Amino acid sequence: MTVEIGLTVASPASIEAGKLSRHFGRFDILFFLICTIVGVDTIASVASTGGEAFTWMVIFALLFFVPQALLFAELGTAFPQEGGPYLWTRLAFGHLVGAINNFMYWVTNPVWLGGVLAISAVTAFEVFFNGGKVFATPVVYVIAIIFIWVGVLAAVLSFKVGKWITTAGAFARFALLGWFTVSVGLYAAQHGIHGLGAGSFGLSTGGFVGVIGVLLFNYVGFELPSSAGEEMKDPAKHVPFAIARSTIFAFLLYAVPILGILLVLPANAVTNFGGFVDAIQKVFTVYGGAAGFVGGIGAILFVICLLTSGVTWIMGSDRSLAVSGYDGAAPRFLGVINARFGTPVRVNIFSGIVATIVFILAQVITGGSTARFFGAVLGVTISTTLISYLLIYPALWKLRLSHPDTVRPFRMPWMKGLTIILMILLAISVLQLIAPGAPLNWFGSDFRPDGWKASEAGLYLLTELIPVLIFIVIGVLFWWRGKATRIANAAANASAEVKAVPAAKK
User: Fold this and answer.
1) Tens of pLDDT, residues 417-459
2) Confidence bin at 506 (pLDDT 50/70/90)
3) What is the CATH number of the domain that holds 459?
4) The pTM is what?
5) Which end of the chain is more exposed for a tag (fewer CB within 10 A), N or C?
6) CA dist., res. 259 & res. 255, Å (int)
7) pLDDT value of residue 448
8) What is the rounded CA–CA span in Å between residue 221 and residue 310?
9) Is 14 among the domain residues?
10) First to last CA, the chain
11) Is residue 388 in a domain?
12) Using alpha carbons only, what angle is made at residue 181 by residues 178 and 185, rounded to the nearest 5 degrees?
């Protein structure tokens, strides 16, 4: 028999987790993943680099996209607790590593929302609703700030309501990219094929360096729904289902429009910034006098796709940051789940503030040049995002060793070999983002980003390294601020372990 010893002390983690509800079903996760992975803001970035980018996209789909899907199918079913990527990293490597990595994982999303996505939305409105003319500065700020805060407010809603926003975003992608692909076919029938020939799809070292970052960035995100693991109805069954199907949908939604752009439009018709919007405007001329009206609908769908990309990533990464807050890897103030909505409202508001500041600062620094704005923010977003995966991927290998008895409804086949391939590709990508061309020809003409001079190699290196170092320092500070929460959780866990002890035999 046993006797009870006192009362169990409630931990910060158990208090906050108790506010969560299960609203996230099989198809909700699928549509969430489609919104997460398929970003319309980078389609032109891939197409603008030519036919070689498409070839690399197919190669990376086999070597990176599919293995990554298998990896997260195992992690998401074996460890389905709230906080997904943060929890896996912390379980594998401890609170300090978890704090640093999770801050980097989180911070890229408000930067992306307030940078790339917001300015892309402004550009779409300029092209389709302002005759291609640049808005006055006050109008740019109004549109961008409304865009940012509509996204934040959507993330505040509970998954019971918010999941319909991501579902709408998935169908907006089906509509926009499907419609665009059909229009490209009609454009080719009317004007002929003026795009790239077969020889343009060959491979080169310079092309590899130029596209690996953006392609890998396009292919990440399978882990994001697991940030809401305790809000899923049945993660063991639904996570593999959603990952498998979203892999197919995402590849097709990227590949078909990009191939159409490359084959039909002249190479100079697609640029890195604003290229997809320009491509939509060009191919929609097949509708004659109705092109303006049709283009307006396309622009609205495009902005919905942008907005829901930001919403899904904010929903997921904000949950991971909140979990780190009540788990002891961030300030406790951030680790609060709102009892009414079941969402991390404080972190949501924090994300909105950061996104707004990023937009304002980038506008000031770049002097309102949207192309420079886009390139600068996209570079920081991609590099910081991919760096965070350097510790998320090997977490599976470590957890296989440290938690061998954990039930795994799905097991990643060839785990060691595929994880090594993922890490090699990721490490090469991070190196090339920070030091283009290294070690072959650091900052050579075939490798350095557009708009940079050979004499600016040191400056470029600083622009990539300084944000990463700042984020690492903030991550350490977050870990330090979480000390009291770690102590409280440990005390509560110890209390739970000793609440019942064997009674002494007479």
Assistant:
1) 999 999 999 999 888 888 888 777 787 777 777 667 778 788 7
2) very low
3) 1.20.1740.10
4) 0.90
5) C
6) 6
7) 73
8) 12
9) no
10) 12
11) yes
12) 140
Q: Is 135 exposed, middle or buried (0-12, 13-18, 19+ CB in 10 A)?
A: middle
Q: Give the list of residues 6+ apart from residue 136 with CB closer than 8 angstroms, or none.
A: none
Residue 145's identity, in one-letter code, is I
Q: Are 213 and 431 in contact (CB under 8 A)?
A: no
3-state secondary structure of 372: helix
pLDDT at residue 445, rounded to an integer: 75
Say what the alpha-carbon torsion angle 155, 161, 164, 166 is, to the nearest 10 degrees: 20
- Residue 153 token pair: 């407010």
Residue with token string 């997260």: 72
Instruction: Read off the tokens for 116.
Output: 């790339």
Averaged pLDDT for residues 113-119: 87
- The answer to whether the CB of 407 falls within 8 A of the CB of 416 is no
User: Distance between CA atoms of 254 and 37, rounded to whole angstroms?
Assistant: 10
Q: Which of 107, 65, 68, 108 is nearest to 395 (CA)?
A: 68
- Domain carrying residue 165: 21-482
Beta-carbon contacts of 345 under 8 Å, excluding residues fewer than 6 positions away, are: 156, 336, 338
42: three-class secondary structure by DSSP:
coil
Looking at the structure of the chain, the number of domains it has is 1
Tokens 């995100």 appear where? 221
H helical segments located in 42-83: 43-47, 51-60, 66-78
Report if residue 487 sits inside a domain.
no
Read off the pLDDT of residues 37-76 as tens digits, 9 standing for 90 and up.
998 877 777 777 778 888 999 999 999 999 999 999 999 9
Buried b (16+ CB within 10 A) or exposed e, 187-197: bbeeeeeebbe
Identify whether 1 is part of a domain.
no
